[in-house]
Design a protein that fits this description.
It is a single chain. With 138 residues, this protein is an alpha/beta fold. The chain has one domain. The chain is 25% helix and 22% strand. The strands form three sheets. It has a four-stranded parallel β-sheet. Strand 3 and strand 4 form a beta hairpin.
Length: 138
Amino acid sequence: MKEVIAVSACLLGLDTKYDGQNNYNPKIEELIKNKTVLPICPEVFGGLSIPRDPSEERDDGKIYSCKGVDVTDKFKAGALNTINFLETYNCKTVILKNGSPSCGNYSYDGTFTHKRIDRMGLTARLLKEKGYELIYID
């Protein structure tokens, strides 16, 4: 039986990114070779649309869109739905898109000024707490 691996859908070339585009990265091809691949997008799994306003987490732990809308509950729902999905398929390894407020090993400071900070995205934090192996792609 093939190993099951989850991958941020945007890295696979699916247009799930906030702007309706993708972040296809050819590095993925070797990482997923001979594996069963589960495309994931926690933001979509939480009910956010494609496209959607970009969002960033603030120091208070809340996630806001660039228009000031609190989308924290959508991000939390997406993270929990992602974990439930991965558990259904007994997936233990996840390849995530760096810089995302959901998936990143780093993210941005909540000011929408492209200031990068050392804070994992919400889904990435929960996956790490649950013991998943996380691989990040920029």
